[in-house]
Amino acid sequence: MLTKRIIPCLDVKDGRVVKGVQFVELRDAGDPVELAAFYDLEGADELVFLDISASHEGRETMVDVVEQVAATLAIPFTVGGGINKIDDMKRMLRAGADKVSLNTAALLNPTLIKVGADFFGSQCIVVAIDAKYDESINSWKVYTHGGRRETDWEVVAWAQEAARLGAGEILLTSMDSDGEKKGYNIALTKAVSEAIRIPVIASGGAGNAAHFLEIFDHGVADAALAASIFHYKETSVKEVKNYLREKGVPVR
Amino acid sequence: MIGIIDYGMGNLYSVSKALERLNVDYIISNEQEVLFDTDGLILPGVGSFKDAMSILKKTGLDTFIKGEAVRGKKLLGICLGMQLLYEESEENGVTEGLSLLNGKVERFPGVSKGSGLNYKVPHMGWNKLNFHQDSPILNRVPEDYVYFVHSYYVKDYKNEELLASSEYDVQVPAVVGRRNVFGTQFHPEKSSIVGMSILRNFVKLVKEEER
């Protein structure tokens, strides 16, 4: 039986992991390679590296980071952030990333999904969606530019379109839940996951192990992503998995 | 020395890095003379069966690989590379494969035979191995989880060529082999400790050849 995946997410800026990662036992908590190895040992099923560099130099550095991570890590990893064209995808995948994640670029130019999927295979193409509840449509609207710009897309419609164009997976972030640590957005995740036939990674809102159980049991998520609760050691991948296993959720 | 067959359809980087971690010499090449001088071959693969076979045919690598396998050289196919070892695939129209193993490749139905409900394709993520028989490639490997990404799987295989399987509504051949020819449907290079132990076994088999 396929297991539910637990995916730590690391923000990388100019080649270093940022966002106040706290790892006492690591010599250098900002080193992406060391952190990747740590999470691998902890039992993470995959990793996501989000490049938040603003400068061209920072973006260049990301390619080196990907190469180094790929050289040491024996689990799959996705690279997102700043991937705007087919060349960006090519560079990241050639450097050893298993998947690339498209967000704003896919909304600005949806054929990018198709071109990428045709060229590299659907399994390489993750479409990341930032969604926020909109009362007027009683559903969620899709946002771009790191959640700063609203689009005309309703989330289920966009997820279906992305899947139709060849996306292999959807990374779905609830802007309403993100950072609140009150649990994933179950209604949003369920609505998207049941409407498409590709895996959905839930993101935004993880605060404890029970939240993971909720999103798998009720949100129909295939995987769950979290950042700060793992980085700040509020819980660990191992703890979450032990809890899920006790509750009968298939985990590795 | 292991030869990684470079025919433009695989994530060669992660396979080669995994071999580096195992301290084994390797060479990535599409040239038959170069690959001929190796003690074992790895056939990676990501993409479509039809495209892969068409490149292998065009370059003559299909005949070369078959010849080497018949000669007794150790061969490991990974993911699409494993599927290519079989007789045919229905991906994008029926295409003949290398026919080193018996069976054909079909798409996951996507509808559960038990419940009638839809399930997700590709089969993507970590799934558990169930061992069917002993094999040097599974020596001291735990019956544990490995990482799959695929939409097609092997059907109508011969039981004696099935070494391990996983369940994804249907039985999915996961580790297969006959004599010197092996295949893994999952990515050992992405399957953490379990995957590395399988690669280590393959490397060991190749090194025995060198002696």
Automatic annotation (TrEMBL), chain A:
IGPS catalyzes the conversion of PRFAR and glutamine to IGP, AICAR and glutamate. The HisF subunit catalyzes the cyclization activity that produces IGP and AICAR from PRFAR using the ammonia provided by the HisH subunit. InterPro entries: Aldolase_TIM, His_biosynth, HisF, IGPS_HisA/HisF, RibuloseP-bd_barrel. HAMAP family: HisF. Keywords: Amino-acid biosynthesis, Cytoplasm, Histidine biosynthesis, Lyase. The lineage of its organism: Bacteria, Bacillati, Bacillota, Bacilli, Bacillales. Belongs to the HisA/HisF family. Heterodimer of HisH and HisF. The keyword Glycoprotein does not apply. This is Imidazole glycerol phosphate synthase subunit HisF. Its EC number is 4.3.2.10. It is found in: Cytoplasm.
From TrEMBL, chain B:
Its EC number is 4.3.2.10, 3.5.1.2. Residues 4-203 form the Glutamine amidotransferase domain. PROSITE patterns: GATASE_TYPE_1. Keywords: Amino-acid biosynthesis, Cytoplasm, Glutamine amidotransferase, Histidine biosynthesis, Hydrolase, Lyase. SUPFAM superfamilies: Class I glutamine amidotransferase-like. One of its GO terms (molecular function) is lyase activity. Pathway: Amino-acid biosynthesis; L-histidine biosynthesis; L-histidine from 5-phospho-alpha-D-ribose 1-diphosphate: step 5/9. It catalyses: L-glutamine + H2O = L-glutamate + NH4(+); 5-[(5-phospho-1-deoxy-D-ribulos-1-ylimino)methylamino]-1-(5-phospho-beta-D-ribosyl)imidazole-4-carboxamide + L-glutamine = D-erythro-1-(imidazol-4-yl)glycerol 3-phosphate + 5-amino-1-(5-phospho-beta-D-ribosyl)imidazole-4-carboxamide + L-glutamate + H(+). The active site is at C79 (nucleophile), H187, E189. It holds the Pfam family GATase. It is found in: Cytoplasm. It comes from the Bacteria. NCBIfam families: IMP_synth_hisH (TIGR01855). HAMAP family: HisH (MF_00278). IGPS catalyzes the conversion of PRFAR and glutamine to IGP, AICAR and glutamate. The HisH subunit catalyzes the hydrolysis of glutamine to glutamate and ammonia as part of the synthesis of IGP and AICAR. The resulting ammonia molecule is channeled to the active site of HisF. PANTHER family: IMIDAZOLE GLYCEROL PHOSPHATE SYNTHASE SUBUNIT HISH. This is Imidazole glycerol phosphate synthase subunit HisH. The gene is hisH.
